[in-house]
Amino acid sequence: MKKIKEYILITIGLIFVAAGIVYFLVPNDLAAGGVSGLAMVINYYVPSLSVGTFMLIANLVLFIVAFLLIGPSFGAKTIYASLGLSGIIWIMEKFFPISQPLTNNLLLELIYGILISGAGMGIVFNQNASTGGTDIIAKILNKFFHFNIGKALLISDLVVTLGALVTFGAEKGMYALLGVIINGFVIDEVIQGINMVKEVKIISYRNEEIKKFIMDELGRGLTIYYAKGGFTNEEKEMLVVLLSRREFIRLREYIKEIDDRAFITVSNVHEVFGEGFKSFD
After folding, report:
1. Which helix (H) or strand (E) holds 238?
2. Which one of 59, 126, 247, 273 is at 20 to 30 Å from 91 when CA atoms are compared?
3. How many CB atoms lie within 10 A of CB 156?
4. pTM, full prediction
5. What values do phi and psi take at 264, rounded to 5?
6. Region 95-113 average pLDDT
7. What is the pLDDT of residue 276?
8. Which residues of 27-53 are buried (b: 16+ CB within 10 A; e: fewer)?
9. What is the largest CA-CA distance in the chain?
10. CA–CA separation, 33 vs 36, rounded Å?
11. Which domains does the chain have, with CATH numbers?
12. Sequence-separated (6 or more) residues with CB below 8 Å from residue 168
């Protein structure tokens, strides 16, 4: 069941990525890095070769090269995401095409295209998958030329952006470079937002009831610390628990009902690994 959920989320992410590329970036010749950007440049010179078709061919070739040079270390999810994105883009181009940009504002199209596709990429990455393409190129550069993965990805995207500059002109090339930069921030923010949980610290005279609610109603474990009040010198229990946003709202409303004088602090935690949260895998 968990695997099915992961593949459903990957597919949703791929639809977002494809929509951002097909309906915002491609109509405006905004080749913002990646195999999709390279496909747009190639499509300009060979119009009969659609973006989706080129991406499918390029990803197949890259997987074969990576298998030979790096080894069979690519997971099923990455293969699915890579080929799935090419297929979804091909379907959108074939059955739901657009003949011209949605607006005449290039910056607006870039922002929406990057936000939508970046959000989709964040969803895909959060399921421990990638869409292949320049990720594979980066791994090859890392193995044979000892670039770290981040720099290798930047190099491959910059090469694609340079191709866009030569093909579509300086203005669109500069917009494409801006898109590459924004895309990285969007992906990071989406991943952090999805994984964010609340660390809640509670000091109350009704700790026993609160502990029972957390364990029985929310199904979460908790940690107990012993603290001493600086003003009263009184020793008290402090409960510490990690919760999703929805669970925190339920706990807050419960505490409000039974002890409206309770002392609560809440912090955002960007990632949690372990039982009840993300697996280390």
Report:
1. strand 235-243
2. 126
3. 24
4. 0.70
5. -130, 135
6. 89
7. 62
8. bbbbbbbbbbbbbbbbbeeeeeebbbb
9. 79
10. 7
11. 2-194 (no CATH), 196-269 (3.30.70.120)
12. 29, 31, 44, 176
